[in-house]
Amino acid sequence: MSAAVVSADDELEPTLQSILDQKSLRWIFVGGKGGVGKTTTSCSLAIQLARVRRSILLISTDPAHNLSDAFSQKFGKEARLVEGYTNLSAMEIDPNGSIQDLIGQAEEGEGPAAAAGGMMQDLAYAIPGIDEAMSFAEVLKQVKSLSYETIIFDTAPTGHTLRFLQFPTVLEKALAKVSALSSQFGPMLNGILGANGGLPNGQSLPEMMEKLEGLRETISEVNGQFKDENLTTFVCVCIPEFLSLYETERMIQELANYHIDTHCIVVNQLLFPKAGSECDQCNARRKMQKKYLGQIAELYEDFNVVKMPLLVEEVRGKDRLEMFSEMLIKPYVPPAGGL
Amino acid sequence: MPSLLIVVFVLQLVIHLLNTFGAGVINSVLWNLYNLLPVPTSKSAAEQKALKREFVKVRKEMNGTSSQDEFAKWAKLRRQHDKLFEQLKESEAKSDSTKKTFDSVVNGLRWLGLNGVRMLLQMWFQKQPMFWIPKGWAPYWAEWLLSFPRAPVGSVSVQSWSVACMAVILLVSDALVAAVALVVTAGTKTRTKKMEEPVKAESGKKAKGEQTQEKKEL
């Protein structure tokens, strides 16, 4: 048994120590299929990082917020310290919700988006992915001003996360079109709209353009940072099952396309039945997991593959999370003599 | 120098044949032939062919590998597959643009070689009679028409001769096509008729025997 778990000489060490050691890292994404333990992993990683960094921010972009559950503490849209820590904060943002907020603000005639209310709304629904990207941009702007040393993203299940990375190109195209149009028809529009370029509900076209341009700049700057392997890494979480592996492989390929560094895989929910266990299901499942673990080892030779056991209790609360997080750094040693 | 009559006829025949077989087919045949020559495009075309072959091979292998049982192997194949697919798309896009230029050149040359030559012949020999028709065979207006535009009256001009050649070629080719179509449809009709015939429900030796007999009759 132990031969399968204890790494061979040529394998990379099966821990996330490399992330702790890489002091230059500023953005860490934790992603994977739904239900594989992303939130637990990101919380654990945050706890470990909090021991070696000055300040950590944990952000959940998953609409099904689990941070509050994991830490048994309510988090909101503003960063809040996690109880029992002095340098670990957490916040939950809703990628779909914040655009609604933005629009709501505009309709009430206050807030930064007031001037561009109706137009913003039209745009938000016209360009695919803009809602997520805008909420991301808002958050990133906040985060940048807050000077955390490392920011950990607990992302929404696969696919959702990566869409906004393409966003600058989409917005660039849209902006180019709009500005081409406005330069062609500008004089005519101004004739209709009046001298200051006011749109029907008291919005102004130049202001609108400026806002979008600013948004694009923020996003492309952040994108540039994400593509730098010294600043950003992506931790893939999966369970040793076919669909999860399939999604992970797809995600890794996609990340490679976006030039985002990824070199860690956390394999979660491993079963280690005790020697002579009578549980047929456990033994059968262990066999299947072993097969997929073998496949992972073969396929991802150049990754840190962390193997995490399935625990008997839910990993919730500070103490259990801390216990769990230990295993990210010191490999779990399964009970001797098991399958 | 063969007789001008034959030259004009052959030219019209070639024009007709090329039009029926389609410029696209001829262009692609020429493209393939062109790539057999030691030209720079032939190398990239050969590379592309090899790439395509490899792509198909990898694809076949990938489809033959169970993703559930041998995930690592399958995923590696898939990576290879995706990479090859990208490369293939790229090289196809590149060769497409070269082929477009090639096509336009070939089209131009073909036009020059056929319609250009025809026009040249018609210009050059417009005053020359192809042959004379016996006097009093046709009324004057018909003679004038046959010699149109500039051949001496009482002879057949090169223009009239080309028109006549084209008409004959069209007639013969239409007749051929119709004959072929007739034979083919006749064949399928008898076959469908056979299929439409009710099949006897009882399966016995007798029915089988009948069937084989029918087949022999065919």
Automatic annotation (TrEMBL), chain A:
Keyword Endoplasmic reticulum belongs to the record: yes
For the ligand (Zn(2+)), the binding residues are C279, C282
Which superkingdom is the protein from? Eukaryota
- Report keywords, A-Z: ATP-binding, Cytoplasm, Endoplasmic reticulum, Hydrolase, Metal-binding, Nucleotide-binding, Transport, Zinc
Q: Which residue positions does the secretion signal occupy?
A: none
Domain ArsA/GET3 Anion-transporting ATPase-like as annotated: residue spans? 26-329
Can the keyword Transport be found in this entry's annotation?
A: yes
Compartments reported by the entry = Cytoplasm; Endoplasmic reticulum
- One GO MF term: ATP binding
* Residue stretches in coiled coil: none
Where mainly found? Answer: cytoplasm
Q: Would you tell me the Gene Ontology cellular component terms?
A: GET complex
Q: Which residues catalyse the reaction?
A: D62
InterPro entries given in the database record: ArsA/GET3_ATPase-like (IPR025723), ATPase_ArsA/GET3 (IPR016300), ATPase_ArsA/GET3_euk (IPR027542), P-loop_NTPase (IPR027417)
What is the role of the protein in this entry?
ATPase required for the post-translational delivery of tail-anchored (TA) proteins to the endoplasmic reticulum. Recognizes and selectively binds the transmembrane domain of TA proteins in the cytosol. This complex then targets to the endoplasmic reticulum by membrane-bound receptors, where the tail-anchored protein is released for insertion. This process is regulated by ATP binding and hydrolysis. ATP binding drives the homodimer towards the closed dimer state, facilitating recognition of newly synthesized TA membrane proteins. ATP hydrolysis is required for insertion.
Extract the NCBIfam families matched here: GET3_arsA_TRC40 (TIGR00345)
Could you give the subunit structure recorded for this chain?
Homodimer.
Q: Which family does the entry's similarity section mention?
A: Belongs to the arsA ATPase family.
Q: Can you say what this protein is called? A: ArsA/GET3 Anion-transporting ATPase-like domain-containing protein
Organism field: Hymenoscyphus albidus
TrEMBL record, chain B:
Q: Which UniProt keywords apply?
A: Coiled coil, Endoplasmic reticulum, Membrane, Transmembrane, Transmembrane helix, Transport
**Which family would the database say this protein is a member of?**
Belongs to the WRB/GET1 family.
- Topology versus the membrane, per the UniProt entry? Multi-pass membrane protein
* UniProt topological domain (Cytoplasmic) ranges: 173-218
Has the keyword DNA-binding been applied to this entry? no
Question: What name does UniProt use for this protein?
Answer: Guided entry of tail-anchored proteins 1
Q: Which Gene3D superfamilies match?
A: Helix hairpin bin
Task: Write out the biased-composition intervals (Basic and acidic residues).
Answer: 193-218
Kindly list the GO CC terms recorded for this protein: endoplasmic reticulum membrane; GET complex
Residues in compartment: Lumenal: 1-4
Q: Where is the chain membrane-spanning?
A: 161-185
Protein's cellular compartments = Endoplasmic reticulum membrane
Q: Which domain of life is it from?
A: Eukaryota
Matching entries from Pfam families are given as: CHD5
This protein's record includes keyword Protein transport: no
Which GO biological process annotations does it have?
A: tail-anchored membrane protein insertion into ER membrane
Tell me the segments the record calls region Disordered: 192-218
Query: Which is one GO molecular function term here?
Result: protein-membrane adaptor activity
| Main location group | endoplasmic reticulum
